[in-house]
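Hi V.,

You were right to ask for the full record rather than a summary. Here it is.
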Amino acid sequence: MFSLFKKKKEISIVAPMTGEIFEIDKVPDEVFAGKMVGDGLAIKPSEGIVVAPCSGKVIQVFPTNHAMGILTPEGVEILIHIGLDTVNLKGNGFKSFVQAGDDVNKGDKLLEVDLEYVIENAKSIISPVIVTNMEKVLSLSIEKGTVQKGIDNIMDIELK
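Predicted structure:
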């Protein structure tokens, strides 16, 4: 049977970290605040465990382990970037549990972060969670408040 109505495709992203949500334009970094990398939000983490915000494939783990990308089955690319200017830490304070090519399920442990070390040695601990291929996105709705990693929804993405 032919339907005149196209079914809406939506995916939900959960918090990769426990902490407080920040609007992306309030992030103290012009690249993220200006949405030059993509759109999303940031989290100020209160603990140092980072989990997969969705199921998918790890497509990139930066050599310094401060950031990684996950591709959802729907083709949405999610970047998790721990802190600001953390590339300068050269991997100190970060321990990755995955590598590029790994399949992950929502809630799987991705990284351990020494929050105290990052707070003392980087510009900020505020951590952007970004959709980097916004051309696939029709709309993005962002949650507010404090979130629990692997449990609380932070973002609903309606696909084109």
